[in-house]
Amino acid sequence: MPFIVDSVKRDLTAVVEWGRQKMQEGDYEKATQHFCMALDLRPGFLQALVSRGFCYLALGEEERAQRDFADVVQKDAGFNRNIYVLMSLSLKRTGDLHGAIRYLNRCLSLFPNFKPALLARGELCLKVQDFERARSDFRQVLQDEPVHLVARRGLADSLRGLGNFLEALRQYSRGISDTSQAMEHQLEQQDQGPEQEEPEEEKLQPEARDGSENDNGISALPETELPQDSPSKHSNEDSPHRLQISLTDLGGHFVVMTVTPPGKVTRELKQLRRSLES
């Protein structure tokens, strides 16, 4: 019996590793096939469900992605905090904005300071015109990271929605100033050459606890990214903020970050400021 168990573990490890390799190559269809095989070997294997759901999302198969993500949450609500952000992105693509917000509410009840969830909920609240909650979410991000450009712009947008145009104008101006400083700092770093950066493990420690499946040494996902505007059968709108989902091999978890090109932020903020000044 131990020999059979070890054999299954070796097969499972190999199948998941092949799936990871295909994800690295951007071949999500082949990767999906490998993760399906892994789930045949071990039904309900959470890391394979996370990986397959991500592949489905990358392929524009939102309904299938939602089933995998919902399965993970049902089996272990605290397994991976990023599942909720991925699920909300999937629901947003299919037009279920309120459903997306509900999943983010669940995420933030478990992980109250998870910035990607706060940012995602803030953006969705702007879309459904819940400006008060949007303002609260963006402010919470800015309390911890005052020079967060997306949160600064989101705060200004929510204030504008609430009719506080003077404070919105002040926040847009602050965003322009912060963006200009960020661009200057970036140029200075380029002139000075690359600096020694701290290891990724130090910078991107996930708050979510390790899943029970991690004891077999299999990491769920390779380092890759899924842009919000990647092809989708249901997506028919572009967000001004690009949601970049960065996956890093840290104990089987991945980190989600919202980023916007500084130059684009400056142009958008100046345009919004002019509209308030006119």
TrEMBL record:
Location of the region described as Disordered in the Swiss-Prot/TrEMBL record: 180-246
TPR repeat start and end residues: 12-45, 115-148
4Fe-4S as UniProt keyword: no
Entry keyword set: Repeat, TPR repeat
Comp. bias regions, Basic and acidic residues: 202-212, 231-241
UniProt entry tagged with the keyword Repeat: yes
InterPro entries: TPR-like_helical_dom_sf, TPR_rpt, Ycf3
Pfam families tied to this protein: TPR_16, TPR_8
Protein name, as recorded: Outer dynein arm-docking complex subunit 4 (Tetratricopeptide repeat protein 25) (TPR repeat protein 25)
Lineage of source species: Eukaryota, Sar, Alveolata, Dinophyceae, Suessiales
